[in-house]
Specification:
Largest sheet: 4 strands, antiparallel
Number of strands: 4
Shape: elongated
Number of helices: 5
Helix content: 40-55%
Strand order of the largest sheet: 2-1-3-4
Strand content: 5-15%
Structural class: alpha+beta
Radius of gyration: 38 Å
């Protein structure tokens, strides 16, 4: 029982009793006019809406927990990045050099902008070259491997006849 609603209903009933129609119908009409009567449909709808609100609050709670977890994970990763940035660099073991290599594709003509893209493996670089060579089959290219030194890993037969463009930091 809600004391505030009961007090409001009591006031409406007292006003109806002292008004022009103190009958039960007059009291009911006064309660309806004050929006204090509720149909069974609106009562059921109210209960359903309260259930939806409870479900949304629970969902918000679980979403907030997931967001908090993600924020903690990002903070931990940032801390790890800061540690790695301040740690002295260790020289890689020669057996690990393949894992630390990147590859660039150097081409002439309309494909020269590809020279700025680094690929994690020679296979990825070769795949990109083969896609572009289907459109520009006479284009000379070289794939450069970048680790401690820059070496040519693969070149087209046309590469010997032409000058290739260079990427910043790569040696010819």
């Amino acid at each position: 029982m809600n004391a505030k609603r009961m007090k409001a209903a009591e006031g409406v009933v007292l006003a109806a009793l002292s008004g022009s129609d103190p009958s039960a119908a007059g009291i009911a009409a006064a309660l309806e006019a004050a929006c204090l009567l509720q149909s069974s449909e609106s009562a059921a709808e109210l209960l359903a809406l309260r259930g939806q609100v409870a479900a949304l609050l629970a969902e918000r709670h679980s979403t907030n927990e997931a967001l908090d977890d993600a924020v903690r994970e990002v903070a931990a990763l940032r801390t790890r990045v800061a540690e790695l940035e301040t740690a002295p660099l260790a020289r890689p073991h020669p057996a690990d050099a393949e894992l630390l290599s990147t590859f660039t594709v150097e081409m002439n003509g309309p494909l020269a902008p590809l020279s700025w893209v680094r690929y994690p493996s020679i296979e990825a670089a070769q795949e990109r070259v083969s896609k572009y060579l289907t459109h520009y089959p006479d284009t000379a290219y070289e794939i450069h491997r970048h680790d401690e030194i820059t070496t040519v890993a693969e070149s087209s037969p046309l590469a010997e006849d032409t000058t290739t463009c260079t990427t910043p930091g790569s040696a010819q």
